[in-house]
Each structure stands twice: as structure tokens, then as C-alpha cells.
Amino acid sequence: MNNESFKSGFVALIGRPNVGKSTLLNQVIGQKVAIMSDKPQTTRNKIHGVYTTKNAQVIFVDTPGIHKPKHKLGEFLTKVAEKTLNEVDLILFVVNADEQIGGGDKYIIDRLKQVSKPVFLVINKIDKVHPEQLLPLIESYRNEMEFSEVIPISAMHGNNIESLLEQIINCLSEGPKYYPDDQLSDHPEHFIVAEMIREKVLQLTREEVPHSVAVTIEQMQRREGKNLIDVHATIVVERASQKGIIIGKNGTMLKEIGSRARRDIEKILGDKVFLELWVKVQEDWRNRSKLLKEFGFNEKEY
Fold first, then answer.
1. Which of 67, 61, 31 is nearest to 186 (CA)?
2. Domain 3-171 carries which CATH code?
3. How many angstroms from the chain centroid is the CA of residue 159?
4. CA distance 4 to 128
5. Separation of alpha carbons 28 and 119, rounded Å
6. In angstroms, rounded to a whole number, what is the distance separating the alpha carbons of residues 241 and 67?
7. Where are the domains of the chain?
8. Residue 152: what pLDDT?
9. For residue range 33-71, what is the model confidence (pLDDT) as tens digits?
């Protein structure tokens, strides 16, 4: 391979909460590296997914959805997303095909106008609309800002993903290979395991326990002489009533969370997993700097 012809770069996925950024990242990488939920603000940290071919390596950064913050955690997440824009080589602004341009999109566009990086408009969920509906939507976005490319896709079904990847690689400059060929994410296994557990909480508890949930991994180690990994994790909530919901009647909800999470964790780790879960109340943790830091949201890093 000729090193001079190898391209690489960092690409940010930006957009309002719940436009399918994590679904797109997982579709591109071919494995779950970002958690998915139909609730907004699911992604809390910058998730890096690595896509490598013979001639290129693209490091995708899936940012938290940009929105008007309601608490300290929200302020932190918006700062993370906005800072990312200045650290990457290319930005994918992801929007929904089945929603008209709104105030939240214009809020993001105002920030994108201040960035001197190429911006692709990626219109997701095209499977939900008639093709004729796309042209006026594209026009309304183009009236707000000039985009380097406009690419309609369906992240869920994989439509037009190959074309998107080709155009991303065309836009990148020559550069080094940052990660080995078989590495799909730069996050440690502890982080991904905690995210898998949090995803199941979000999926199973619906509206009752929205985003007042954090997951910490207390212990993760291979059992001696066996192909078995012991994982001990704590699910942290803000109120006793939420703890009751997560545990469920006779512990049924917690068992279901554990059993679904264990299946995903086994796929990622490639081994059998013994997963033990506890639930703990930490009142109003999303507004307490000390606890935010303890749960991995360290403002100084950003």
C-alpha cells in the first residue's frame, strides 16, 4: 500500500436530538458502538467509531444532540457537541426527512456558520417520505446555509450509506492510520458495557425514568480458568420512585434489563458474561458537579 494515497480524518455527526446519529454510526461501523433509543439526548459523551478500508480511515464522532440545556448535565453535553465542531475535518449535519426545518435546526445552523470546515447536509429517514417531498425540504435548508454536499439516506435500512462514505473519503486529505484495522471504537470496554446497560433501561422503562439514569461499572474481570467475564454494575437514579420502577415487581424489570444487556455485552466482549446489577439513588445528580465528574462527565476535559 502506498502511504501517500491513504486518507484519514475526523468526522462529526451533529444534529438535534433523535435524528438518528447513533443509528447512522452503528450502520457504518457494522456493530453497535453507540446506544440507540427513541428518546432524545441518548448520547452523552463523544462516541468515536472507526471505519477503515484499504485506502482510508474515518473516525466518526457522534456528539450529544445540541439543544437548549435545562440542567448542568445538559449544559455540559451542549458544550461537548459545540467544541467538537472545531476539532474535526468534516461535519455531517443530520436532519429528519419527515420533519420541516425548525428552530432547533436553525440554532445549529447558526453555529455551523461560524465553523470553517466543510459541512454535509445528511437527510435521514428518507424511507418515511415520498421522494417528491425531499426537494422542497432541501431547498429550505439551502436557503439557510450553503452545504458542501446534500445526501439523503436511511440509516436504519442502509440506503445510500455507501455513497455517503465515498463522498466523505473524497473530502478528506491524506493522513495517517490512527487505529489498527480491527478497532471499531476508541472507547474502553467499561464505557461501552455501561452504555449497553443504560440503553436497556431507556428502552424498557419508557417515560417514567427518562434521563435521570447513569451506569457505573464497579468491577469487570475474567473468572480464572474460564471463558466467563464477571460484570458488576450500578444503575444510578435521582429518586426512590425511579428505583422502584427499575427494580420492578419482584425484581422482574431489573432481571429483564440485565438479561437484554448481557446478550449485547456478550456480543461485544466475545465471551459469556455474568452480569450483576444494583440500583442506587443519588438525588439530583445531574446538577451536582462532583457526581457528574464521578460518572464520567469531566468538564475540564472539554
1. 61
2. 3.40.50.300
3. 20
4. 42
5. 18
6. 27
7. 3-171, 189-301
8. 96
9. 554 444 444 444 455 788 999 999 998 887 765 555 555
